[in-house]
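3.2 Worked example (two chains)
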Amino acid sequence: MRTSRTGRAGQHAALLAYLVFLAFPFLWLVSTAFKPPRELASLHPTWIPKDPTLANFRQAFDEQPLLDAALNSLAAALGTAVVAVVLATPMAYVMARRRTRLARAATGWVVVSQAFPLVLVIIPLFLVLKNLRLIDSMTGLVMVYVVWALPFALWMLVGYVRAVPRGLEEAAAVDGAGRLRTLVSVTAPLLAPGLVATALFAFVTAWNEFFFALVLLKTPEKQTLPVVLTHFIGAEGVADLGPLAAAAFLATLPSLVVFALIQRRITGGMLTGAVKS
C-alpha cells in the first residue's frame, strides 16, 4: 500500500514538473510582453511586472503590419485545414477498410515521411512551384502546407475510421448505398470528432509554420505572422524584446482559443460515438 502511494506521488510530481516545463516559456512571454523597457533591462527580472504597460503592444502594431500578416496566416491556415480534411477523409477510409499489403505499405510510408527534414524537400518544392508559377502566392503556400500536413492527418483519420463499426456500412450497402454514399452519409458523420481534431492539427501547423513561408513568400504584403515576427530582430541580431514578446503573445492566442473552444466538443463527440456503437 505504501509502495503504491509512493509511486502515485512520484507520478504526480513528474506530471507537475512536466506541466511547469511546458508552461514556463508561455508565462515568461506574457510577463515580458507587459514589462516596460526599464524592467526588461533589469539585472534582476521578476515574474510579475511591477509597472505593467501596453506600450509594447502599441509599438508592435506601429512598427510592423501585424494585422495584415495575421489575416494572411488565417487564410493559409483555414485553406490548409479544409483541403487537408477533404483529401484525407476518402484516403483514410480506403486505407482503413482495405487491409492489403499496399494499404499497409502506404501507412508505413505516411509515418516514415514525417521523419524527412524540411531542408531536404524545400529545393524540390521550390522548383515545382516555380514551374507552376506559384512562387510568392498564397495558393502555392497552401499547397505546400497541405502536402506537409496530409501524412499525419491521414494517419490520424485512419484510426478514427477503424473505430467505426463495419456493421453500419454493411447495413447501408444492403439498402443499396454505394461506397461514396456510405462514406458521406454514414461514416463521415461518425467521424466528426476525428475530422475536427484533424482540421485543428492542420490549422495549428499552418498557423505556426515559418520555414516554408520564409522561402516561398517574397512580397512583404503576403508574408505570414511568423515571418513578420522576425522583423523585430535587427540586422545585428539584437531583438526589440518588448514589442517582440507582445507580438508573439498575440500570435499564440488563436491556437489557444481554437483548441479551448473545441476541446470539449472533441471529447464529447468521442464519448457519444462510443455509446452509440
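3.2.1 Second chain
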Amino acid sequence: MTYDVSTVRAQFPALRAGTAHFDGPGGTQTPAPVIAAFTEALSRPLSIRGTTLPGEVHAETLVGDFRQALADLLGAQPGGIVFGRSSTQLTYDISRVLSQSWGPGDEVVVSRLDHDANIRPWVQAAGRAGAVVRWAEFDPATGELPTEAVGALLGERTRLVAVTGASNLIGTRPDLPAVAELVHRAGALFHVDGVHLTAHDFVDVERLGADFFVCSPYKFFGPHHGVLAARPELLETLRPDKLAPSTDAVPERFELGTLPYEVLAATRAAVDFIADLGSGPAAAGRRERLRSAYAAIGAHESALLETLEKALAGLGGVTVHSRAAERTPTLLLTFEGRDASDAYRFLARSGVHAPAGSFYALEASRHLGLGDDGGLRVGLSPYNDTDDIERLLRGLTEFLG
C-alpha cells in the first residue's frame, strides 16, 4: 500500500474550503474521525470518573485510553502522561516545581533556537531562584545547534537543560540523544520541547533521553491542549501545589480540576488517525503502526519539500533560512526588498495560507538577524499535495514579479 494523499485529504472537512494550508506548524486541520470522537464522547453518559455508573465508567475509560494512546505515540509509560491546557502551561508548571530546589550559583541552560515557551519559563524560574542562565547558541549560517555548543556550558552546578526537538521557525533538529548523554553525565535534567518534532517524526522519549517531553496534539490533527511525558518515578519526586482533597497519585497530581473528557477522546482519535496512515498490518500494535505511518508521512513530505526547494532555488530575491542537515519540512523565507508580511497577504488573496512572523521563536529570529519580524514560514503537513505546492510557487512568482 502506498501513501494516497487524495484519500488523506478527503478526511479533512476544512480542506473543502479550498485553501492551500502551509500553516501546519501553527496547528493542523482536523480530520473527521477526530471530530466524530469529540461528539461521541459527549453523546454518551458522562460523569466524574468512577467505577459504578455508566457515566463514571465512560469517563474513566476515556482517560485511560488517552494516556495509553499518547504513551504509544511517544514511547512513554501511560502513568507518565500528563494533560495540560497547553505545552506552555505544562512547562511553566514543571519549571516552578523544579526551581523550588534551585539556589544561587545553580545553572540552567537554554537555547537560542527554541520557541519562547522553552526559554522564558526557565529564565524566569532561574531569576526567582537566583540561578544563572547560560545560553547555547546556534549557527545562523547553517541553522545548526552543535551538541558541543550545549556541552561546553555544562558543569557541576547545572540543574536543567532545555532544548527543542525541532525548531518551529527553521525546522532544525538537534541531536537530542547526544545532548542528553552530556546532560545526564553532568547530573542534570533534560527538558525537550517536542511540539514541532512530534508532528513529523516517530518519537521515542527514552531513546531521545528526555526526562520531560512536551507536545501539542493540535499540531498533529488533535484538539487544542498540551501533553507532558515523563517517567512516573520522576514525577513521584515532584510536589506541585494542589487542592487538599484532590488525589496525590501520579500523574493526576499535576492535573488541576476535572479533565475535559471529550478533548481526551479526540486526542486518542488523532493518534489512531495517524496510525492508520501507514502500511503496517491491521493486526500490528498501535506503536508499530505509528512507526510505519511516520515513515510514510516522512517520505511524502520529503518528496514535496524537494520539489519546493528546487523551485525556490530558481526564484531570485528569496533567502531560505532553513539549512540544517537534519530538519523538518519547514522553510523560513525572506525576500530582498520586500516584507514577508506583504507576501503573506498577497498569497492569502489566492487562497494560500503561509503565515509571516517570528512565531514566538523570538531569540531565533533575532539571532538570524531578522529582528522580531521573522519571515514567511512554509510548513508542510501530511495533507499537502503537489497542487498546493504549485499554487504556492505561482503566488510567490507573481509576488516577486
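3.3 Remarks
The chain is about 40% helix and 15% strand.
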